[in-house]
Every structure is written in structure tokens, then in C-alpha cells.
Amino acid sequence: MELVLSPADRAFRDELRAFIARARPAWLADKAERGIPFNHEDEKFWQKQLEAGGYGAPAWPLEYGGTAWSPLRCLLLAEELALHQCPRQLPYGLGMVGPILMAYGSAQQKAYFLPRIRHGEDWWCQGYSERDAGSDLAALRTKAVRDGDQYVVNGHKIWTSTAHQANWMFTLVRTSDSGKPQQGISFLLIPIDSPGLTVRPLLAIDGNRRFNEVFLDDVRVPVENLVGEEGQGWTYANALLQNERLMIADISRNKKRLARLRKLLATPRYDGSKASSDIGLMRRVAEAEVDLKILEYTTLRFMSEVEAGRKPGAEVSLLKIRGSEIGQALLALSLEVAGTAALPFAPTDQGANAYPEEYDGLLGLVEEHFFYRAASIYGGSTEVLKNVMARRLLGVRA
Fold it and tell me: Is the pTM of this model over 0.85?
């Protein structure tokens, strides 16, 4: 892997920076500078800007309206968007269901959904977890019973991110109880406005609505919304989860966190000193930075292998584990350096908070720190992923 950018890649990065400077309006830049969280309208606006500029689906093949960029260039785009504090591209459509539809969807599904995902017309959520089926996803109990040209779906999903903003949900349902639990699972696409589907909020301690419960009571779904073959949903879900763990290494957002930490280290404290004079603290910062650089190179290596046609296996779980650990370390360090300056909460779904102007840029740090503790669980809990790697890669048997 070439670790130094070529002249062509440096020019590409300059093009990205010029595009962001042109396309990002002042009001959006002001929200980023002050640390005010982006809302869903901001995300929709920015996706349309990216698509109009030719950056809407960088990892997608040309035949589906993407740019087919190399893994390095996709990472450069994500890095520039993060460092310039642009609204992030939510992964549920572009990085999750989109690639699954390309690989397993019908021609009609591809023709209808893929352009709408790119243009930000459809917004997706992932209906996987249930009360007793999170890390043990094969234990899911939401049922879909075939009734003519429809499935009748009954069940319950929990921790469904952005379900209150989405208009579609891709979900795993049980279509058979025979054989191994994994063999009876199918992959369905369900409109959020379907009769019998109810979305209920799960508010976080900071007042924000990130998660939801989804109740399905006799929800009728056309058979044409089945992706691939009935009973093969476990295979498709595993492919999706490996893609998710490639993305969930969070390289770009961790670089943004590192940049914020460096800024904090250079900011004088109340007595005129700087945190950067603390040798022990700086050693911990250096260790986190080295870990992040190693993770970046490892991610690029995995991405290059995927580009060459090799399907990712259990080893990509390492990226998710280390990405969450490094992010947690950077946030903890930032809180330690910022001290009481990190305490004011950013505006939430429940209303805005008053705060002095000098806290601009630090808004949301405490919320991000506490929320990101969950990174050890979502997308695959650390303990479970370590066990999976031990079994599949090292042959360890409990």
C-alpha cells in the first residue's frame, strides 16, 4: 500500500476541498463552527449537494451511478468531509442496503431504489435488533407469513437508529422455523408508513432521539419487497455486516476528534499554561495517534483486498473493535483537557440550552463522549467479535 499521496491523489484532495468551499453555504458552516448538531434536513440538503457535484455515491460502481473510486479516494472524501465538519452521509442507504441490492436485489429493486438512495429521496433504517436478539441475531422472532402475494409481518424491533426520519426499513424476519435458526431468516424492505407499523422514540439521557422501537402488527408487505431468496437473509445480513464493519472503523471521525484534541492542547488554560506541557498526557495522545494511523493503514489494506474481489471475513471485526476503542480514548482525552469548558450541552430535540460564546466548538463533546461508550456494543459487541475471530481465524474452541 502506498502510504504517501501521489501527485494525482493530492490534486484530487484539492478538488474535494474546492468543492466543499463552493457547495457548503455559510449557514451550514456556521453550525459546524459553533458545534451545533446537524438535523435531518441538513443531512438531506448536503446529500443533494454531494450528488449534484458527483460525490453522492463514491464507492458505488459506475453502472449504478457511482464513481467507482479507489478505497483511498473514498477515504480521502470521508476525511475531508469530517475535517471540514460537513453533515455525514448516513450509512444505512449508501453503505448498507445499497450494496446488498446491487448484489442480491431484483432488476426492479435496483432500478427503483438505487437512484433514490443516491439523490437522498429515500432514507433508510436497519431493523435487526430485538429484545432478545442483539448480539445473537439468529434468535430474532419477528415473523413474516406468506399470504398470497404478500407477507404478513408481526414482531418488534428495538434500538432502530433514525427510524423516525426514515421512510424505508430493511429488516430481517423469520419466514421459517425449520432447520437451524439462521436458515429461516429472510431480508425484507418495508415502508415506514405501512399500516400497522408504529415507531416509538427511545430518548437518550441528553434529550436527543437517536433510537426507536418499531412495532409491526399485521403489516402487509408485497412479496416483491423480498430481497433475493426466501430463507437466505442470514447470508445477506452477514455480507452487510462485514461492509458495516469496514465503515465503522470511523477513521474520518476519529481524525476529526484528534484535530479537536490538538486544538484543545494548544489552548491556554485559566492560569496561562497549556495542557501540552504535561508529558504524561502527551504520551497518551501520541499513543492514540499512532494507533489511529495503524488502523487507517489496516483499513486501506482491507479495502484494497475487497476492491480486488476478495470478500471480507471475520478479520474485519478487528477494524470495528479498534475504531471504537480509539474513538473512546480520544474523547476521554478531550474531556480531560477541556475540563469544565466541555460541560454545556448542545441544543437537543427537547430545546436549546444557553451557553457562553467561548464554548463554541466544544458543544456536544460531553454528549458525544457518553454516547460513544455504546460503540463497544452497536455494530457487534467487542466481546462477541473477539470470540468470533478466535473461533474462525485461530480455531479456538470453548
Answer: no
